[in-house]
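Q: I'm building a small set of examples for a reading group on sequence design. Run inverse folding on the following structure and report the sequence directly after it, with nothing in between.
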């Protein structure tokens, strides 16, 4: 079948409005969580929800971690701009922000890597980061600098950004 399939393009304002409308349910889901891990692909319309979730997580007292993917260059400048805007809008809400720039990952591809293989490799890096974060949390209920160094060595494609206040000894 060669007939083009319709797709849904979400508007960032619509997503934000939907999150506001469902804010109480989100708070109830997050309440009592020690750790909130948000995984989001930045650059699309839904990326604006990541900052909203991070803010609620912080308000509910959860240690909020955001694992965010940044688009490949070939996905276009508009997508890269939207990704950066969404990250900037997130501000310091997550205590730990793990950025996975797909362009950095792309440097490890062979010339024969297909698009499907590229996205599979990206998914593997995301999974590696999330598994490590959850493991550190289960073992220690915090993230120490040594843990972050381990995460960086195991997942070399990630960029770690830690938000700390002056009195924080760990994340």
């Amino acid at each position: 079948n060669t007939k083009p399939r319709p797709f849904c393009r979400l508007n960032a304002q619509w997503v934000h409005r939907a999150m506001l409308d469902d804010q109480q349910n989100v708070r109830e889901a997050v309440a009592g969580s020690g750790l909130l891990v948000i995984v989001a692909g930045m650059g699309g319309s839904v990326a604006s929800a990541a900052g909203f979730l991070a803010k609620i997580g912080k308000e509910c007292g959860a240690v909020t971690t955001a694992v965010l993917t940044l688009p490949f260059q070939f996905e276009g400048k508009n997508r890269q701009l939207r990704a950066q805007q969404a990250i900037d809008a997130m501000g310091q809400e997550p205590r730990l922000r793990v950025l996975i720039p797909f362009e950095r990952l792309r440097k490890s591809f062979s010339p024969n890597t297909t698009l499907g293989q590229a996205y599979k490799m990206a998914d593997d890096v995301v999974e590696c980061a999330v598994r490590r974060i959850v493991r550190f949390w289960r073992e220690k209920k915090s993230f120490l600098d040594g843990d972050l160094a381990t995460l960086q060595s195991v997942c070399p494609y990630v960029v770690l950004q830690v938000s700390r206040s002056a009195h924080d000894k760990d994340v």
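DSSP finds seven helices and four strands in the chain.
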